[in-house]
Amino acid sequence: MSKSGMLDLAAGVGGKIDKSDVLSAVDTYEKYHTCYGGEEQERKSNYTDMVNKYYDLVTSFYEFGWGESFHFAPRWKGESLKESITRHEHFLALQLELKPGHKVLDVGCGIGGPLREISRFSSTSITGLNNNEYQITRAKELNRIAEVDKTCSFVKADFMNMPFPDCTFDAAYAIEATCHAPDVYESYKEIYRVLKPGQCFAAYEWCMTDSYDPSNRDHQKIKAEIELGNGLPEIRFTRQCLEALEKAGFEVLWEKDLTMDSPVPWYLPLDTNHFSLSSFRLTALGRLITRNMIKTLEYIGLAPKGSQRVQGFLEKAAEGLVKGGRTEIFTPLYFFVARKPRST
Ligand SMILES: C[S@@+](CC[C@H](N)C(=O)[O-])C[C@H]1O[C@@H](n2cnc3c(N)ncnc32)[C@H](O)[C@@H]1O
What we know:
This is Methyltransferase. The chain is of the alpha/beta class.
């Protein structure tokens, strides 16, 4: 069943972590991050633990506030957030030229929102790869409800080391997922390996733009807040992703920061100055209500201890993302299509 009520949110906090261990998981998670004295190397060496703790802690908040697809989108005036998210998924399918019968890989598939939409839009069979067990459980349940469970499936594994033979897929995509990789080149190399020759990989990447100044303290703080609030070991520059693709052997067909094509800023739903009835839960008032409900539910034992702390670092993430968007030092919409050459 789709879970989008406040009690579902409370019951889901911690995912597969034992409810009595949620608070200590929050502690461990926070300490990985620069805002709490953590270091990039530690986050990279322990990326599986760091990223899985993050998604166990936040997935029910994401479902409650954002829906089944956990990503941003460029947005046109008059479009709702949900419509823009769906269009962004269709755009990816079109750029990959998906055809009925194609065997497609979704790298870091979340709870399968994009997978369900893209498979229905393109009549393809999609394998969702994800290393988070709680999300896989949710994804399977939602696929069964949407009746796409005969054509699409999920595999629990690390995208740095996939359990697929070489040259398996007709197409691969990653939506705001490979930003969690400890080494972006190694993650692209692994995707290259499982693609058939002549076939394409497309992605939306989270990146620092050329406006980011690594010696500027305000910029550093915004970057650290985004890493903390989103389970990231390190946010790369757009140019580093491009170099990594080429080094992995891909021929880059086109690449662009799609924030330039977004008349409505991608971060608007998180901006506390913005009010929207259709995304009410994301507004300042909606978040205030959620904060108070979580506090009450934690107090009476219906939400695990530590739930308020999770809400706290997600609020920090939202602030960091809005500042990153306004200053244009950060983009979650760096897009590329890259082809594995026919003869390798
Ligand atoms: C921001 S979510 C995006 C999910 C999905 N693409 C969507 O747009 O709804 C990132 C996803 O990447 C997955 N992920 C992160 N690191 C991973 C890894 N090393 N191997 C497999 N999946 C990973 C997370 O578990 C999560 O599902």
